[in-house]
Amino acid sequence: MAATPLLTHTLGFPRMGAQRELKFALERHWRGEIDAAALESVGAELRARHWQAQRDAGLAFATVGDFAYYDHMATLIQLLGCEPARFGFAPGTPELARYFAMARGVQAQPHEAASCDAGCTHTAHEGAGQPALEMTKWFDTNYHYLVPELHADTPFRLSGHRLFDEVAEAQAQGHRVKAQLVGPLTFLWLSKEKGQAPFDRLTLLDRLLPVYAQILARLKAQGVEWVQIDEPILGLELPAAWSQAFEPTYWQLGKAGPQVLLATYFSPLETQLRLACQLPVAGLHVDAVRAPQELTGVADWLPGYKVLSVGVVDGRNIWRTDPDAALALLRPVADKHPGPLWIAPSCSLLHVPVALAGEEVLDAELRSWLAFATEKLGELGLLRDLLDGSVQDTDPRLAESRAAIASRRASPRVHRPEVARRLAEAPAGADQRRAPFAARQVVQRGRFGLPPLPTTTIGSFPQTAAIRAARAAHRRGTLDDAHYRAQMRAEIALAVRKQEELGLDVLVHGEAERNDMVEYFGEQLDGFAFTANGWVQSYGSRCVKPPVLYGDVARPRAMTVDWTVYAQSLTARPMKGMLTGPVTILQWSFVRDDQPRSRSCEQIAWAIRDEVADLEQAGIGIVQIDEPAIREGLPLRRALWKPYLDWATRAFRLSASGVGNATQIHTHMCYSEFNDILPEIAAMDADVITIETSRSDMELLGAFGSFRYPNEIGPGVYDIHSPRVPTVHEMLRLLRKAAEVVPPAHLWVNPDCGLKTRGWPETEAALRNMVHAARQLRQEWAQAAPAAA
Ligand SMILES: Nc1nc2c(c(=O)[nH]1)N[C@@H](CNc1ccc(C(=O)N[C@@H](CCC(=O)N[C@@H](CCC(=O)N[C@@H](CCC(=O)O)C(=O)O)C(=O)O)C(=O)O)cc1)CN2
Ligand code: MET
Ligand SMILES: [Zn+2]
């Protein structure tokens, strides 16, 4: 039993709302249907509700600062006064308008775009249209943050007031506040250097720290006792200069402000464990789900007077916490650590859905195995009560938890012998194509006869309100199967017609019938359950509903063949079949914690392989197997990369290698930096890869200097996240840049990613320009070297 006070808190709570209220308010605001004040009142209402949930669960604090209208890094950019100058905001532009401009980009005015001719220089448009900030994965999650852009001379200045307003708001509602913000070193680490002259962004720390100190001083003046400063980069392998910067940084920040709880998560601290324990702050939070083995070391090294916050409740998954296992972790720490012990989720609850309430589609047994954010807050209270002895072993909550854990462990729904057998009996070479790429390329060129620089898209076309409404009606039962199917077929026909009109070379069916590229497959595969309302923010207003992988995976029937064959029947051009790959299905689902991820992934791979075979059998010559999540699945520590990459790329190859040489396999990747895993991407041996590159200005392709990607590649020529229509000229520039490092005969032309979040007008305009750019370049090249074409 702990001698010192035990309390519970959370590192953060989901911001969207149980009914995705923030999403709908944001989208209405962007459509001009509600003004900023109306949006702000939805935000305030959600914050109030979420703080109240924390109070109801007996948490010691309401955590303030985790809310954001789009992304917490973007909010921090404004707090620190470092909005990129390129946006050229006119004085007096409201804070929220500037915020959404950074997040979503600014469309050039039509007359300016029209004045762009092939002769204008790229910079001629500065101040007019502006692309959004680059967006990338938050560590190894499916959450995307906006990347701060820093120049050598970027000024920092305490500018935003939201954090302070929200603190006052919570205090007015009677909460004891713990403020939360991302720390200066993690902020700099996650930022990107911009500008001509190279510089080291760590050199900006000296200018940044005084602003953080001001923030802390201001919070203290507001009466805030604790600030949680997140420095998750302490779990990464940091260059020495970065880890050495922690001590002086926190000496400075410790002076002016409230007590600091330094929060680490997602990864073991390893060589930085001592450093984290000895920093001059009042407390340390560690992730005991990802690194239970380090708890003893942390208790040994952490000075006895400091707060130790133990993240025992999994903030990244939805399984109910095993109370006995959690107590077995907590008890020795409580005995060893004389200082205050806090119990928390491992990380912010941003990554799990809000509440199980309303999940009636899940059967009672499965439901009893789960805990979403609200239930997790409740679990914290039970652990606290058991640990401090205020309730006994006979507490009914404990009995209920134990029964659920036992039921999941013993359930016959989880294990299927035929699935295990298939994995065990895989023939040697099942993960290899029959012939090497060069031979396949010859066969495929003969089969498809595509022009140089073939144009294609990544799969999805706009998911219009009509499509969503039809699906919602179908779900509710007010639209029957036949009518739903007819309507989706009409959408597919529309997409095919538009692609033919635009002159694209390889067509797609458009994915109208899919709610989401992972959920759609999860719904059809055995071993997955799906929720009615288990939404998690992915970026901005966009959410996903990750399926729950609870048991062995099997494919009861073909999942995409009918739709694809129908689409192919409408056109003479090749129709790409469209599947989601095993690593991405794994990565974007809530997965089993009772077997290695590698094994779950292999099971999914066999199911996808069967689907690929059925497509091939049905005459589909090109199949794309999307793997956008392969990079984010990479362990945060390099030492663990190789085993992961081995099983992940093998799973992809297993899914892709059942076909003949004439079948062209594509894959697609986005939202990540791929430079450091190019050889492994090549080892996936897809015939064609389409990959996001435009937001980072084809930076990725720089890596091709040292590594020559062997197969064909379509580096994305425009960013699909913004409604902004790219000019022909812009895309020509990117293609020329790409052709410097990729053999022109290997180049494809495509957007960065799927177009489901876009509307048709901008989609058609952008694709028209894209096809135009490809044709212009084909012509130039044919004139320059007639023989080569
Ligand atoms: N799982 C996953 N992760 C991913 C991606 C992805 O595509 N999938 N892409 C990357 C970026 N992330 C993205 C994540 C989500 C969306 C997205 O568009 N999400 C949609 C929801 C998609 C969906 O599940 N739609 C369902 C449900 C739609 C819905 O909300 N329906 C309403 C009713 C709507 C109506 O009547 O009009 C309701 O149920 O209340 C459907 O189409 O059936 C959204 O937030 O709006 C886009 C990109 C990385 N990670
Ligand atoms: C996030 S990757 C998306 C790939 C998918 N085929 C689409 O076009 O939407
Ligand atoms: Zn993509």
Structural features, described:
This protein is α/β, with parallel strands linked by helices and 789 residues long. Helices cover 41% and strands 12% of the residues. The chain has an 8-stranded parallel sheet. Strands 17-18-19-20-21 form a 5-stranded parallel sheet. It has a two-stranded antiparallel ribbon with strand order 3-4. α18 (465-476) packs antiparallel against α19 (481-502), α23 runs parallel beside α24 and α26 packs across α27. The radius of gyration is 26 Å and the shape is globular. It starts with 5 loop residues before the first strand and ends in a 5-residue tail after the last helix. Methionine binds next to loops. Catalyzes the transfer of a methyl group from 5-methyltetrahydrofolate to homocysteine resulting in methionine formation. Residues 453-775 form the Cobalamin-independent methionine synthase MetE C-terminal/archaeal domain. This is 5-methyltetrahydropteroyltriglutamate--homocysteine methyltransferase. L-methionine binds at residues 458-460, 511, 626.
